[in-house]
Write a structure and sequence with these properties.
The protein is an alpha/beta fold. 26% of the residues lie in helices and 20% in strands. Strands 2-15-14-18-16-17 form a six-stranded mixed β-sheet. A five-stranded parallel β-sheet has the order 1-12-11-10-13, with helices on both faces.
Length: 442
């Protein structure tokens, strides 16, 4: 196998630490005694609880109803008794209405969980409805409701579906292991996605630092003439969907545009696997693969974890902390969300739990900008981070729009490459929030 590798302009090469967990096969995590299930785990409107304290629930039972189009229902990941419904801390950093369920250890599956048939016999509308009712959202981190992605406006002609198997974050290996261990399920999910939007061309993009995953996916797709595995140069942020589209198809998503503007829909390989599961078994999205890794964890693992399981429980299953944790992050070090506690639950977008030691977590003191231009050279969106940052630090948020601040994908490449360790990403994020808040008010 000798595939040519594709990529995009710009980007960086952060050191990789995938060795911690890349050889660790996916293990089923211990059954949680208690789960805390947030009623908002995705971009869009929160769900409304449809259970009450004292109710008995089963695995796969819907407990949160989505009332808006951009939303996805929530299901119970265990069987047990609803103990509490209240606002609690979640990994997204804000208090969210959560349903707390205590396990009865019976693992009873809800009666509605049954196979939905074969994709060959399902209509595109039926596939989209299965995905919607299964509460499937993007598993790459952004957690956008998948059925919404599959319902573009009539004037947006889709001709291509791309599965994102790049996994460019330096520590994460959940997608890598999924492609190695369940490649047929990933291909099945891709075929369902292609039928749902009526396209005849599908790609699976994988960075070339995972040759075993490329080999497994090529073999799984060898009988599918309309599915192609694409080898990508290992470079960050190759997993950003617009960079992925550019690398695979050569198309450029316009400023402020969406993948559908160039005829493409992108989904994560984990999302495809969840879709296959929902069709083949009827089980909604109630568990996912999570990489638990980092310098301060005893035994890094890839765990299949029930949604709602507290971080501290899966950290304990990895041998606990090896030393005092300096930082706990949901996701990878580049785009993940720092946590102030390990008592938050795993949600649908939890691709990893990263524990860094105090030395690695220390934030360096910034020096003055030396105008070297490195941040401009590597910005994958062709922005000028140093100027946006300067304006933001002066509070001149409106002026940052002249430099297209809202096009920033917050990948953090500029902060990584900066020799003066300027807080480029942090200041750009502030400017984006201020600009968006002002637009919302006006």
């Amino acid at each position: 196998m000798n595939l040519k590798s594709f990529t995009f302009k710009g980007g960086i090469h952060p050191p990789h630490y995938k060795r911690y967990s890349e050889k660790a096969e996916i293990e089923k995590a211990e059954e949680p005694k208690v789960v805390i299930i947030p009623m908002q785990q995705h971009i869009g409107a929160p769900c409304e609880p449809i259970v009450k304290v004292g109710d008995k629930v089963k695995i796969g039972q819907k407990i949160g109803e989505a009332k808006a189009f951009v939303s996805a229902p929530i299901h119970s990941s265990i069987s047990g008794i609803v103990k509490k419904i209240s606002s609690m801390n979640t990994p997204t950093g804000s208090g969210v209405m959560c349903v707390t369920i205590e396990s009865d250890e019976l693992n009873e599956i809800h009666e509605n969980v049954m196979s939905k048939g074969d994709i060959e016999k399902l209509t595109k509308e039926e596939i989209i409805n299965i995905i919607k009712e299964a509460g499937i959202t993007g598993q790459g981190g952004a957690s956008f409701p998948t059925h919404v992605k599959l319902s573009p406006p009539p004037d947006k002609k889709i001709d291509t579906v791309i599965l994102n198997g790049a996994e460019c974050e330096p520590f994460l290996t959940a997608d890598h292991r999924l492609m190695l261990e369940q490649p047929e399920k990933v291909v099945y999910g891709l075929k369902a996605l292609m039928k749902a939007v009526g396209v005849n061309k599908g790609y699976i993009g994988i960075e070339n630092n995972k040759p075993d995953a490329i080999k497994a996916m090529v073999k799984a797709a060898e009988k599918e003439s309309n599915i192609e595995v694409v080898s990508l140069v290992a470079k960050y942020p190759q997993g950003d969907e617009k960079r992925l589209i550019n690398a695979v198809t050569g198309r450029v998503v316009p400023s402020g545009g969406l993948p559908m503007d160039v005829g493409v829909i992108v989904n994560n390989v984990g999302t495809a696997s969840a879709i296959a599961n929902a069709i083949q078994t009827g089980m909604p999205l109630v568990e996912r693969v999570v990489t638990v890794t980092g310098s301060a964890i005893n035994t890094p693992k890839n765990l299949l974890v029930k949604i709602g399981t507290p971080f501290k429980d899966i950290i304990a299953q990895c041998g606990g902390y090896k030393e005092t944790p300096g930082k706990i992050i949901m996701g990878g070090p580049m785009m993940g969300l720092a946590q102030f506690t390990d008592e938050v639950p795993v949600i649908k977008g939890t691709s990893g739990v990263l524990i860094l030691n105090e030395k690695e977590a220390r934030i360096p003191e910034p020096d003055p900008c030396i105008r070297c231009g490195k941040c401009v050279d590597i910005c994958p969106v062709n922005l000028q981070p140093l100027f946006i940052s300067q304006l933001s630090l002066k509070g001149q948020y409106d002026d940052t729009q002249k430099y297209h601040v809202l096009d920033c994908i917050e990948c953090g490449s500029c902060s990584f490459i900066c020799p003066s360790k300027r807080p480029l990403l942090q200041s750009i994020r502030v400017a984006k929030r201020e600009v968006l808040a002002k637009r919302k008010k006006s």
